[in-house]
Amino acid sequence: FQHYYITNNLRMKVVVVLLVALAVTYCKTPLPMEKKVYIRREHSLIKPYSSMSMDTPMWDYSGSTIVSNNEIRLTPDHQSKSGRVWNTIALMSRNWEILMEFKVHGSGRTLYGDGFALWYVNERQLMSGDVFGAKNGFNGLAIFFDTYSNHNGEHSHGHPYISAVVHNGTQKYDHDNDGTHNELAGCQSSFRGQKHDTFASIKYINNVLTVHTDVRGKNKWTKCFEEKNVILPVGYHLGLSASTGDLADSHDVKMLKLYEVDLLPGQTFNVEEALKLVPSAEGEPDRPHVHPKKKEKGSSSVLWTILYIFIGLVVILSIVGISIVVWQKKNEDRRRKRFF
């Protein structure tokens, strides 16, 4: 009996170890780093959520946001919706990484929009605005997950598109023209409409901003961009927002985890000085807005216009003439019948 008990006990331990290993294997982790990372739960959104109320500790909701057990839906797949969720506690970490699981999907196959944004800005924006559901003229960092192409002449690019913008409160984001004249960096990414899980990693370490994605269902990170000399102060707030217009999509946040990263060798951190920093980036500078060029009317276009008018008149006159002939023919037939 004792031998049977020991054997059973060993089997149970083996099963437990295998289950733990399996859970670790399927658990999404941050990108490998040389320094230690610590999850900051006060800045994270971890399911299960409370579907009974909108009261989630340390986060505020507004607009069309709907909370269920497994996701936070910023907008449903309906037109003219916008939703937001904002962290109530200011982030004081010098180095950090955000690991986010999300899903953008809807009934539209060729036309859909508009997208969502991840924010790290100086003030929470619970009221609706024209930049993916939040206010324009922001101060801080925005990562845009844009699904609708507005095309701005020579600055047009494919969609879906992920881009980063750093503003200090004096610039305006031109959402109607994709904001390409003042973006820091970006890349195309097929994150919309996937049946598998989609992830994004946003790292800010020692003034270097790096974005990776895992949207192909292969559990493999792909670098979107990396930009050096990005200056961001501490004490700003994290947020998420999304919007729909004439087109629509569901914008769901499954999970958001913020990890604090240790200081790198030689890196210093003075809280008072970090609070006073002004957001800036030494990437691509603001470019002048380029309006689509209007086609000038030349002599050839005038001639084509005259030709179209002439052809239209000929068609109309032909229809009128045929109608008159048919009418006269019918009247003549009626008279002959009466005579006989």
SSE diagram, text form:
Blueprint: H1 2-25, E1 37-39, E2 59-63, E3 66-67, E4 72-75, E5 82-87, E6 96-105, E7 115-121, E8 139-146, E9 161-168, E10 185-188, E11 198-205, E12 208-214, E13 222-227, E14 230-231, E15 237-243, E16 250-261, H2 271-275, E17 280-281, H3 299-339
Antiparallel strand pairs: 1-16, 2-5, 3-4, 4-16, 5-15, 6-11, 6-16, 7-8, 7-15, 8-9, 9-10, 11-12, 12-13, 14-17
What is shown here, in short?
With 340 residues, the protein is α+β, with helices and mostly antiparallel strands. The chain has helices at 2-25, 271-275, 299-339, and strands at residues 37-39, 59-63, 66-67, 72-75, 82-87, 96-105, 115-121, 139-146, 161-168, 185-188, 198-205, 208-214, 222-227, 230-231, 237-243, 250-261, 280-281.
Order of helices and strands: HEEEEEEEEEEEEEEEEHEH
Percent strand equals 25-35%
Residue stretches low in confidence (pLDDT < 50, at least 5 long) are 1-6, 14-26, 286-300
* Principal-axes shape call: elongated
Distance between the termini: 123 Å
Helix/strand structural class: alpha+beta
Rg, alpha carbons: 30 Å
Main sheet: strands, sense, barrel:
8 strands, antiparallel
